[in-house]
Amino acid sequence: MGVTVSDGQEFYQFDALNPTSILVVDRGVVVGHTRVLPATGPTMLSKTFAYLASCGAYVPHSRMLETSRFCVDTSTARLFADGIHLATMTLIAGILEWADLGGYSEIVTVTDVRLERILRRVGLPLRRLGETSRIGNTIALAGIVDVDAQSVQRVRPSQYRSTFTKLNRAV
């Protein structure tokens, strides 16, 4: 269970599940990405990092999504405020907007404590699902963020533009 690289392209087992990719594009260049899957199917949290959800509060449901592979190219990204990159804020806003348009109410993620701090600073507290764990050079954790239109508005940078439309999703 790991990442396979072929012809310079990474492929992970969860990429075979037809995930949604949310991209941040700045002047024609992709500077941010996350992968989105329904939380009710196989996910990174349920299959790879279940030990991070040790408190028992992780109950996947049809209105919950999992995001994974959150990445931003900070070498090209401009700063937004308080040292947070514009691409980071744009990606967070995009994830929330996409989820809200689809009628989702929660996002679960495995991330590191640095992103947890960013979320807290912008008014999106992450509800931890267990203890942290060192994975390589990262202190990882699992948590849930609530989704609603107010959260989208709170984090959306003034330069933010999306091409999302109302989603029709299977329940």
TrEMBL record:
Belongs to the autoinducer synthase family. Keywords: Autoinducer synthesis, Quorum sensing, S-adenosyl-L-methionine, Transferase. GO terms for biological process: quorum sensing; signal transduction. One of its GO terms (molecular function) is N-acyl homoserine lactone synthase activity. It catalyses: a fatty acyl-[ACP] + S-adenosyl-L-methionine = an N-acyl-L-homoserine lactone + S-methyl-5'-thioadenosine + holo-[ACP] + H(+). InterPro entries: Acyl_CoA_acyltransferase (IPR016181), Autoind_synthase (IPR001690). It comes from Devosia psychrophila. Its EC number is 2.3.1.184. This is Acyl-homoserine-lactone synthase. It is an enzyme of class 2 (transferase). It holds the Pfam family Autoind_synth.
